[in-house]
Amino acid sequence: TTSPAPLAGTVVSSDQQMEQVLKAWSVQRQVIGRDVINDNGTKIGEVEDVLIAPDGSASYGIVGVGGFLGIGEKYVTIPVSQVRYSAGSFILPGVTEEVLRNAPPFKYAE
Questions:
Q1: Residue 69 and residue 63: Cα distance in Å, rounded?
Q2: Any residues with CB less than 8 A from the CB of 43 and at least 6 apart, and which?
Q3: What pLDDT does 8 receive?
Q4: Who is most buried in 7, 36, 67, 78, counting CB within 10 A?
């Protein structure tokens, strides 16, 4: 029989670490696909992706704006520091859908 390969890095090994894990968000389950609204409560886009910086922090959100059923939709980047989270909503204060439509488009590197 062969031994399992060792895990790279560290694993959760204490109750305190597990408590932190349980408070964390799952991007796939709790962020992707959620509406982005402005401070007037108007839907202005939808979270499509979250970019992670080299230090492991969430740096930018990718928001889909415009289009219908994914046709004609464009992606824009929003610094995570500009997004508020309140009562289950991602809020971009002072931003309209028009502002997002006129923002430079985001394209993934090939």
A1: 14
A2: 35, 36, 37, 97
A3: 52
A4: 36
